[in-house]
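lol ok so funny story. i was supposed to be doing the assay writeup but got distracted and ended up predicting the structure for this chain instead. priorities right. anyway since i did it might as well share w the group, maybe its usefull for someone
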Amino acid sequence: MADQVNIQEGTRVLEMGSGWGPFLKFLKEKRHAKGIGLTLSDGQYVACRKKGMDVYIKDCRTVKPDDFGTFDAVVSVGAFEHFCSLEEYKAGKQDQVYHDFFKTVSDLLPVGGRFYLQTMTFTEKMPDYKALDIHSDKNSDSYMLALAAKHLPGSWLPYGSEMIIRNAAPYFKVVNLSSGRLDYIETIAEWRRMLRKFELGKYVLYLKLLMNMVKSKEFRHILPVFRISPLKVCFERNLMDHFRIVFEKV
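and the output, tada:
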């Protein structure tokens, strides 16, 4: 990521959706770059701040040059897929949501500045949203997609890399594009292996979490995820893809 957006010593970088801060840590320790991160999570904000990272609670879609200045590079891993809701999609606003976002990123970069984007997408195999049914056969595509939607509330994915590139085109050209679908299948499998590995403290937290989940009206839809990952199945069935795209401002 750092190489593809030309991050060197002293480079000023904005990470949109910085999570728990691994990339910001890499920038500081390995590249001696100046990274700023944005998150919507209070927990992530507190954790990153405790580790000395320059992180702020702010919606990536609303950041302006007046907020933090401009940057030499912008990166975003896993935030883009949450920018459009099902309601916005049904209202025909998905393209506009993405167009406005790329305008926001463009305003933060100089001409020639690069933006690294990593996001999940739907593929051509994605059925109409009306076909998603949480009560359908538990091995069906409609059930797996509906279950995935339950665990990504408020999110509706873009339809392939073409939709993303089309909305970026007024501001950016594509420098590199690759699919990480097969990589992500293994990533999810590794996450699940680590989550299941027994550690007493971790399982005490799981028990507390489970007690809270039992009180939820959605518990019957949360429980199956302990057995199967709907996202992993969607990637395996090629209902979803996972793209890494490097843009350069024109």
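Residues 12 and 34 are 5 Å apart (CA to CA). The chain is about 40% helix and 20% strand.
back to the writeup now i swear
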